[in-house]
Amino acid sequence: MSNADDVAAVRAVHDGWFAANVGLDVDKMLPYFPVGDGYLQFNLNGFVYRGAADKAKLWRNLSSIGVTITRIEDVTEPEIQVFGDVALLTSEGEAELVLPSPTGKLESSGATRFRNTEFLRRDDGAGNAEWRIWHMHISESAPEGQLKYGTE
């Protein structure tokens, strides 16, 4: 497989994973992560999830109380670097979630900007050479208008 083919395959995993976020579709999400407990995520909610089953439990529980993601997209072109059987994808995105308000009523979060780092391996966790996301770190972007360098 050429580097261009690997970049395209990594991008397809990223795009599929993002698509699965809309509606918190667990069945669509699981194929983008390795089987077993090797996956590690530092989630936007501040918690750590180990293994796709742990992440699936979060999504199922959130869905059961009406929490969902209604929109998610990249706002910059993802940067993808492939190093043999590992890859690094970084991007900036925007999502809109339905979350409980302080009163408990489910409401839109409005646009939530975030930064995303995905570490992928050409390994599905069961010994097959298929690209999967093994680690992800998502954090909220700085608010609009904040001074990037402190004084300017």
Could you provide a short overview of the structure?
With 152 residues, this protein is α+β, with helices and mostly antiparallel strands. The protein has 3 helices and 7 strands, in the order ααββαβββββ.
- What portion of residues is helical? 10-25%
Radius of gyration: 16 Å
What structural class results from the helix and strand content?
Answer: alpha+beta
Based on Cα principal axes, name the global outline.
globular
CATH topology name, in short, is: Nuclear Transport Factor 2, Chain: A
What does this structure look like?
With 152 residues, the chain is α+β, with helices and mostly antiparallel strands. The protein has one domain: Nuclear Transport Factor 2, Chain: A (Roll). It is 24% helix and 39% strand. The protein contains three helices and seven strands, in the order ααββαβββββ. Strands 1, 2, 3, 4, 5, 6 and 7 form a seven-stranded mixed β-sheet that branches. A hairpin with a 5-residue loop joins strand 5 and strand 6. The radius of gyration is 16 Å and the shape is globular. The model has no long low-confidence stretch (mean pLDDT 93).
Key descriptive features of the protein:
Nuclear Transport Factor 2, Chain: A; seven-stranded mixed beta sheet; 7 strands; 152 residues; 24% helix; 39% strand; alpha+beta
What is the topological layout?
Layout: H1 3-21, H2 26-29, E1 40-42, E2 48-50, H3 52-64, E3 68-74, E4 79-83, E5 86-100, E6 106-122, E7 131-140
Parallel strand pairs: 1-7
Antiparallel strand pairs: 1-2, 3-5, 4-5, 5-6, 6-7
